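Researcher: We plan to redesign the surface later, but first we want a full-length starting point. Tokens attached.
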């Protein structure tokens, strides 16, 4: 008789069920992982709300940490009992983009938790090449931050930050607070974090922000030059909302860079002034997932230089998924939510 596991299966927009399903069997080159923690990401919420494509029905969740319980044939890099994390973005290695090193733009990209079953389950099966072994000392809840941290590393590297640059981060949610810490490690840049929630601003200050600003109380287009002496050289949009995306290019200095990191509603459009982009010679870049940065994220977390434990504000089991969604969308105290299968 097949072993059973509990899993959260997204059926359709706003519809899911928690059910007993067979535990997957690792085939050749695959690893079966017992999931310890899986972060609730904005992408998961978009899938739940029907605003992001997913191959439904399926088990969602992609910010996965856990322990190896079984390996298929030919697996050599991990063994039973190892603590591991997962890079959920699997490329084909054959298409135009893969053969040019742009694996994250793969024409046949398969995302765990989006295209195939993911981590909101007691067990998940993953190809060995997308599994990263951890030190025994690392906390698995903290390890679940590897995937979003690896994405933030890619975004920060895209900006090519220099030591004298002044940086503004719009949004002090999980990715904004990770981005802050990465930037402070990369350069001596002065960083301003903008967020309307006091708790998040306080946490940003504790994690190294030089200043924090409440955008409700201050018009940041007027306030930032007074604070910095000029507009910032680089702006990271880490919210994914129309208002902050439109704001991002307006508050950057001439010759500056804007990195759109927040996951926007795929159906949303914004207003932009092409003349101002041209005249100020502003570079606007999107930042998508984590090409070749998962190993870097593991190293940074294991070094203790990136602090994530204080970002965890809520933990829910699979049966509490509706409460997790409600908390994500409505709680001002929420930073990072972990699903604990």
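Model: Full-length starting sequence:
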């Amino acid at each position: 008789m097949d072993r059973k596991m509990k899993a959260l299966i997204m059926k359709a927009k706003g519809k899911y069920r928690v059910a007993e399903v067979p535990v997957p069997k690792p085939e050749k080159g695959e690893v079966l992982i017992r999931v310890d923690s899986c972060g609730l990401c904005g992408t998961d919420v978009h899938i739940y709300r029907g605003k992001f494509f997913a191959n439904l029905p399926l088990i969602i969740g992609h910010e996965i940490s856990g322990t190896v319980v079984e390996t298929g044939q030919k697996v050599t890099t991990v063994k039973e009992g190892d603590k591991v994390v997962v890079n959920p973005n699997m490329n084909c290695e054959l298409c135009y983009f893969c053969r040019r090193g742009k694996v994250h733009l793969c024409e046949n990209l398969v995302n765990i938790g989006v295209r195939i079953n993911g981590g909101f389950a007691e067990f998940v099966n993953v190809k060995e090449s997308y599994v990263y072994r951890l030190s025994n000392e690392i906390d698995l809840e903290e390890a679940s931050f590897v995937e979003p941290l690896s994405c933030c590393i890619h975004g920060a590297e895209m900006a090519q930050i220099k030591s004298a640059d002044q940086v503004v981060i719009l949004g002090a949610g999980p990715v904004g607070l990770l981005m802050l810490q990465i930037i402070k490690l990369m350069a001596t840049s002065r960083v301003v974090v903008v967020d309307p929630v006091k708790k998040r601003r306080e946490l940003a200050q504790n994690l190294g922000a030089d200043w924090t600003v409440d955008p409700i109380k201050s018009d940041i287009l007027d306030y930032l030059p007074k604070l910095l002496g000029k507009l910032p050289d680089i702006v990271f949009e880490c919210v994914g909302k129309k208002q902050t995306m439109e704001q991002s290019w307006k508050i950057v200095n001439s010759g500056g860079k804007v990195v759109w990191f927040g996951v926007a509603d795929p159906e949303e459009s914004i207003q932009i002034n092409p003349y101002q982009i041209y005249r100020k010679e502003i570079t606007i870049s999107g930042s998508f997932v984590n090409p070749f940065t998962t190993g870097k994220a593991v190293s940074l977390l294991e070094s203790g230089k990136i602090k994530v434990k204080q970002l965890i504000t809520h933990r829910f089991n699979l049966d509490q998924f509706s409460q997790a969604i409600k908390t994500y969308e409505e709680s001002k105290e929420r930073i990072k939510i972990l699903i604990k299968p």
